[in-house]
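User: Could you check the structure of this?
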Amino acid sequence: MVHFGIRRRCKAALLPLLVFGLLMPTLGARAQAPDQASPPAPVPTDPTATKTTDPNAPAQDADAPGSQDTAGVQQDNPFHVTAIGRASWLDPTVKSPIRIGPIYTSNISLSYLQGNGLHIDPTTQDLVDGTSRFAILRADLVYNHDFQRFGLTVQYLPQLAFSNGQFQTDFSDQNVSIGSSILLSPRWIFSFKNNFSSQNGQTLFGEFNLDVNNITGQSAGSPFLQDFHRQIYNDTLLSFDYRVNEKDTLTIAPTSHLNDRYINGVKTLAYDYGVQVSWGHSITERESVTVYANFDRRFVIDTLPVYNYFGLGAGYTSRLTQSLTVHGEVGLSTVGDSGGNRLTGVGLATIRKDFKSSNVSVSYTRGSSFGAFLSSGYSDRLDVGYDTRLGLRWSLGVGAAYETGGNLYSNGNFHGYYLNGRTAYKLGHGFTISANVGSRQQDGPAVGVYSGRTEYISSTLTWEPLGDQGQFGPY
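Assistant: Sure, the predicted structure tokens are below.
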């Protein structure tokens, strides 16, 4: 059995900082005025991939934040990107007082967490009963700039955990995202995005986040089925967009993913590479359709077989009214190995409705992306979220999610659910205080010794320069 050591964890934590630091001096000397170019029509993400990370921003985004009165399906600026773990855009007009040159802080939060079942016995690998308490500090550092012919964004989101006055390496996470879109010609746009995360998976701090972009209908939900060892994720997406005419766009998007983690105490490495080719057509300023074909070749070290995924499908996005957005994709996927081929349906459906002082979102996804207990096969996930304002400062919200799936090898099934309640109060000057309560249940052969219920409560103090445009508080 192989375990991560403290030294290796520290190296993983320092890697994003080194990359972030090396890029800044080079980029600062090349800043020029932004160029407003005509973007391609939107292209949906691969429906065989569970939406637990952001979609490819240059292919998905529509308008700049705050432009909803005239927003259509197409974007006004090809360089807009999404925030880490969100479907909402970064606000390019943010005026953060905590800034060093082009690098600024978009939010800082301090949380107090109390929960059960957060530790495992190193000898038996069983969950340890009892209550654990943590203080968690998070900050979101951003470099976001549009040059003359390309945009560049670097996001770094560290999470530092403390218990009994001691820094807890095992509970501290690192997330870094680097993305760029380059205008090669009036018709060609090249996009690049790489997301890296090192996460322990033992701390939810009672929160739940289903974020749905009310322009594109794209969604991003928090992963909640988790084992109790550190997991390393790295996702890379390249995108070549060719604008055939004002309404049609051809996109070729190579991808690769890596997932290094432990399953029931056994170190497991899984990775893949593939490509998706799609054709997007804008029906009107508010409606678009897409057809696609994709291929993915996946390697799972602990099971030996190589899995080949093929998919065909179509997608539809519509902003029916100023307050109602729908997005859907449906397709067929086949996966083959030495044991033959399997055919199944895949897809997703998302709807968001905004009322005068509230919003409700529903998202369903069937796909095959890597997860805490999924290395091969498919999973189904349903998310529901509701938020409402009670006056100008106070808000309430509830959320729920259910996920089930199975790997292609034996004893690979899993299922679980998550429930959450939350409230937030805006103190003014960018400060918000919130409270969350959450409960998670997960079971199945793939979950193994980590089956059972975990419950959390937390309180958080958050500072944001301009507040959160996607939700009603720092949930």
